[in-house]
Amino acid sequence: MRTPLRLAAAASALTLITGCGPFGDDNDDGEAAGSAEEVEHADGPLVVEGAFGGDNGFPARVSFEHVERWDDRSVLRFTVEPLGDDAHDEGDRMIKSGTFAHYDSGTWDFALIDTVGSTHYKPLADSDGYNPGSPMPQTWFVGGQFEMEAHFPLVPDDVERLTLHAAGDIPPVSGVPVVDGEPPEDPPTGEEDDAFEMEAGDTLALETRGTDVEGEPEDYVDELHPIVEHPSRTRADGGDEATVGLHADVLFELDESELTDEAADTLTEVAEQTRAEADPSQPPINVVGHTDGQGSDDHNQNLSEERANAVHEFLSEELGDDYEYETEGRAADEPVADESADDEEQREDAQATNRRVEISYTLLPEAEREAGADDGDGGGGPLESVVAEPAPFREELGEPVDSGEAQMLEGSPSEVRLDVYPFYRDGAYLVGVFGLETPEDGSAPLDRLEGTYTGGHLTAFGVRGPDEGEVLRTARVGAVPSGETNGDYLAHRQHSIFMEEGESRVGFAYFPAPPEEVDEVTLDADRFGEFTVPVE
Hints:
Blueprint: E1 5-7, E2 11-15, E3 38-42, E4 46-52, E5 58-69, E6 74-82, E7 88-90, E8 93-97, E9 110-114, E10 119-121, E11 139-141, E12 145-152, E13 161-166, E14 173-180, E15 203-205, E16 221-230, E17 233-238, E18 241-247, H1 248-251, H2 263-277, E19 285-290, H3 297-319, E20 325-329, H4 344-354, E21 356-362, E22 402-406, E23 416-420, E24 424-426, E25 429-437, E26 444-445, E27 462-464, E28 471-477, E29 488-489, E30 498-499, E31 504-512, E32 520-524, E33 530-534
Parallel strand pairs: 5-14, 12-15, 19-20
Antiparallel strand pairs: 1-4, 2-3, 4-5, 5-6, 6-12, 7-8, 8-11, 9-10, 9-13, 10-16, 13-14, 16-17, 16-28, 17-18, 18-21, 19-21, 22-23, 23-25, 24-25, 25-31, 26-30, 27-28, 27-32, 28-29, 32-33
């Protein structure tokens, strides 16, 4: 499998920096402290070639220039050179139809990621659902270039590099420069029909749509939530808030609300961690009980309230009077796993995941948090990790370090080969890049490879953390909507659900970054097996 990536820019030196990791902020001046080794960043354009967007993919060579920071928004500038054998002859020109968007929607299926600030930016949209900036052409001249712009929410002044994710068979485009800019005095005036008049080497800049935005710009911004699993609990942080999900089966007997003797160890560790990092001046500490979908609504509501109250009472005794609490039960109204699987084991695993008590609170500023908390079994607290500079643009994937084969779906006519490439650090995250390839004589349907965390790709994959029993999972984008189980996760988005004979794809997932000294990790790739992967 090959995805050509070409770098065509001068490079400048930046530094790998150590800091608090994906579960906290940088230091007071906005930069993490320390210096390990220099990395080189390109100034652009960053040239990527592959199949973008929709069901069948749109082959193109795209040059990403930079992101301009205007007064009220950010503008991604890029140039599209359409490729492919599916163009048709229009006189002496080869004309290509289609869009490289999700299901031919006519919207740019891009996202910008601040991997240091753990923030995800979606393209702005007007009241009709279209993106301000360049319209998505339906007609392209193969041999010409189309200058485009896509509008995003305004990124902070201290952000100098972003990573771009595009739907399709495209690896992450890291190290996109951010520069200050302003709307051009002479905006482009080209029309889509001008493509029929283009000659080889011509460039067309289409007239942009209006700048109106539906809703507020912050509606298009999401915090990233790194997920760290521990045998007794799961932690997902975002921005200045921490959420610890305690596994109810560790605290209670089935269908009971009295804490077991074994629960004390887990809750004592959680109380120590809460004391070390919860901000008592930003109340409350929320304690919310959840059940699985078995039993009546009234029974589940009572059980969830009683379990939340039991945890609240333990915490308040441990923490004293410095904190305020809000306690409630939500029965089975907010599942985090789908309990409808036909397989009994999968169904029971989902039910166990949904039985939980969640504790959430506002974090103290990083400088005020106590060091050395959670000295029990070492799990459940923030992962000590490196916050590096955003990764530089990567010209190529490198060589696979290992591979495995498996059926993507039961009864699939062919196995799919998974190639595992070296992992690398991008800001507060560890990036796993994978190749998927079918044999020359076999096709295969695709599966999202989603585990407990449904709605995203590769959420069944996990990286073993530095502490025993700890698993690092694909980061979540924003919150899971209330009452739903499907979330959005920081991984590739491929919309075609079938691979032809001998076809190859690129996939990726972003995990919380492990500590700086970690130079290799164990990847649990679900049905494909386990792999030891170096960290670059």
